[in-house]
Structures are given as C-alpha cells and as structure tokens.
Amino acid sequence: MTGDKPSAWSYRPRVDIVEDTDEFTVLADMPGASVDNIRITFENRTLTIHGTVSARQGHDVEFLTHEYGVGDFDRELPLVEGVNADRISAEFEHGVLTVHLPKSDRAKPRRIPVREA
Amino acid sequence: MFACRLTEPRPIVRLRDEMDRLFERFFGDYEPYRAWDPFNLRRYPAANVWQDEDDIFIEAELPGLTTDDIELTVLGNELTIKGERAALRPKEGATLHRRERGAGTFSRVVHLPANVNEGKVEAAFNNGVLSVTLAKARAAKSRRIPVRAKGATT
Question: Cα–Cα distance between B71 and B149 in angstroms, integer?
Fold first, then answer.
C-alpha cells in the first residue's frame, strides 16, 4: 500500500523530564530517527517534537516475529512559563533526543538578601 | 476527568497534571510503564525477525546505548542480546517530573528459525537501532524438491 505519508503509524516517544535551577531538560527515546529528520518547535508554552522515520523494511516482508512498528514520532509537552525560548537547544545521539529549555531569569529562584534594619 | 480549579495552581503542579493527562491518554504502542520496573516488557528489547533464503534478520530498538553497552552472542539457533542502560541521575537539587524511559540491565534470547553459521554474523547499530544479519547454515537452507508425476520417465 503506497501513500503520501512515509508511514501510516505515529508513535509517542517515551520521555524523561528533569528540572534544575537553570533549565528544563527533556529526553526522548526516538530510535531510528536521524538528526536531519527531527523537528522541534516551541509555541504557546508547548514543546512539540516530531521525528520522521521511514519504514526500514519493505512492505512485503513477512515477519516471523513482529513486536514493534516503525514510524514517525510525535509528542506535545505543555511546559510552564519561564522558558527562554530563544535559547532552546537540542542534540540527538544514539536514538535519544535531548532538549535543553533554559529558564528565563524571572523563573530562576532568586536569593533575596536580608539587610539589617 | 480533569477537575475544575477555583484558583490557578502552581505552574509545577499544572505541569504534572498535564503530564499525567497525556500519560493516561493513549500511550502509544508501548505497554504500560511502571517506574519501579523500568523494563516492564516481558522481554526487552522488543525484536522484529524476518528471513529470506540465505539469511535471518533481527532488528531491535535500543536507544541511549552505545555499542560498548550491548553484548551479542550466538549459539546454535539462539541469539542473546544483553546490555545495560544507565539510569538517569538528576543532579543534587533537581526535580524529576517524569520518568518514562527505562533503565537497568536486560537480557533477551531470540530463537532463530534455522541454524546459523556462527562465523558469519554481522551487526550494526545506528541511531539506537540494532540490526543483526545471520547467515543460515548450509544445511538449513531449504532446497526445492522437484515433483515428478508418477510413472514419468524423467
């Protein structure tokens, strides 16, 4: 069956989300994606991840064991305010996408000095 | 069912609720995931296996590993995939909002449909996908048997 889309199924990558003082870090498992086929957008406080993954085997392959499907990855992650959108960066290695979302200065915990009255 | 709130919750609580909603909704192709048992699948990694006349092909998704983390062994008609993925260790003072990705050691035996030539196994690992090609042992390749009509001379 041929169609316009490279694959018929879309999968939600598993993610880990860590927050420390300076940034949110999102790690997403996207095996089979590649650096050139990943699109990340941040809009309205929502991080959207998309990875285009073409089928790795032909349509007529008869699987003896077929435990997972191959297809695009899609996930939307609403995040809190306080992300400095201009400084979002990401890297992709060994099938894992790591997105760094630095907090804007407003959102960082600020130490408030206490002065003697 | 998302409860109504009279006051705006703290942003972090909102984040967690959003995550929970997404999580509970259609989780995708994966089995339900429990944080205390990261590799909750009966067998990890999941594998796809197919063959042609000469070879058996196995593919498994192992994101986050390097070739040093994966141990492959072949014996007879069994392929064993073993390895370990390091757990995410947030820094001191960091908060882990969501942990869906598994970690820990795994060991999986894939039974092969035919005996293989153990000296002719190739494996590649790209973008978190492991691809293994095993050449079938000569004796295992199927041979076409000609069928003659009974009573024919040739």
Answer: 52
